[in-house]
Specification:
- The protein is mostly beta strands and 177 residues long.
- The chain folds into two domains: 44 residues, no CATH class; 106 residues, Jelly Rolls.
- The longest helix has 20 residues.
Amino acid sequence: MGNKSNQFLNGTIENDQYLLKRINLLTQQMTAANAAIAGNTVIINNNTEVVIQNALEATGNATFKSLRYNTGAMSGASWTTFGLGLPGGVTILGVTANVDVAGAGGTWGVSFSGGSTTPCFPNNNSIIVNTKAGKNFVPEVTTGDTELAFLPDSGSLNDLSVTVIIYYLELADMVDV
């Protein structure tokens, strides 16, 4: 079976050396692109996606993405919906939100609509500036274009401005052999 100390991943020294060279090159590219490796963690700044690719196949990518959306000043006492450009067929992983500008009064909730109807932050969220919320989801695949729908629980959405970041996974099919 060979010397186990010389085997790692797929078991051949040549392939391991190739993989180590690829990791080194990737590390150099990431450092140049505002990324860093700290222990076992890769930190990527100012990017909206991270692609994980099988080095041997170079197909079948898994891309972790984030989509940032700012509502601007909202108004009204009923549903206000914002198109995100979040496509169908992606897996929503989580969402975070921050109140940027205080609203006129009351509390609010937000849910996805369209390709997903999962509540993000269902109700009683404060209108105070820098109120933050975060939620992980049981992974859910969107069935179509997905929007955000804000609803005042009490009062109105007048002047309220919220930044929302949605984290999701998009898979690409492998190419034919």
